[in-house]
Write a structure and sequence with these properties.
mainly beta; 71 residues
């Protein structure tokens, strides 16, 4: 099945990535911008293959706009 990967960042931030197949990391691993987390899942049902990354940023317990993280 697919999983959601949560990455802790300095300053109380957490980034979430899903749906991920073939997980390449495990809990406690250090990651950087070049670390592969796994393979993005492709839904093969419906009207053809569809691949959509769900990406979120949280500060402590509140979601924040991820736009500045994507620059």
């Amino acid at each position: 099945g697919t999983v959601t990967v949560m990455v802790e960042h300095e300053g109380g931030y957490i980034s979430l990535y899903s749906p991920i197949d073939n997980l390449s990391v495990k809990m406690g691993d250090a990651v950087n911008k070049n670390t592969s987390l796994g393979k993005l899942h492709t839904n093969k049902g419906g009207k053809g293959p569809k691949t959509v990354l769900k990406f979120q940023i949280w500060k402590d317990t509140k979601p924040v706009n991820p736009e500045e993280w994507l620059a």
